[in-house]
Design brief:
6-stranded antiparallel sheet; 200 residues; alpha+beta; 6 strands
Amino acid sequence: MDTFSLPVLLAFASLLLGILAAAIFAYVVVPKRRRAKAKAEEAEAKTEAPVVAPTPPPAEEPPPAPAKRTGKVKQHSLFVIFNQPDVTTDERLTEWLRGKGAHYDAIKKVFLIDGQQASNPITVANAFPPGEMPDLLRGETHEPIRGVSLLVKPPLHKRRNQQMHVYVELAKEMNETFSGKMLDADKEPATESTYAQILG
């Protein structure tokens, strides 16, 4: 009986140690890897598309003349600054995003609108502070949003600029809906020539 119980006892002990090792791996190693991966993705997202908040020029200095853009634009930027941001503005923005089929990117903390080209979505980010938006569609608590940035990458070929038309229409619609102030990438008031430049 003793010769039979010793191997069984050793097998049972090794089984328990195996289960213990698997539990330690699941509770310690796996979460560390997930956190490291999430931090790496977050760092990559921050370096990919930095969003610059519009800042008004100082009162004593005259406004600088708009500089002509040279070379290719990596990303089109338009800013809609809300006149009187409050809870109702946030509710209207939530409904506007929902109506446009926007979905929230939890890693980049922005909303994405597919438009005509899902591979190059239109990004809706917070303008103050720049970049991160609360998940409005899930009712995440936040300070009233004072303005948004609308971002999109230009197409590689001019004949594929359907997304730019969607982008300009969304920006105009948002500006009218919120009676806001529309600024271009140079933080100057956006005009029809601004839109024409975006459309190529």
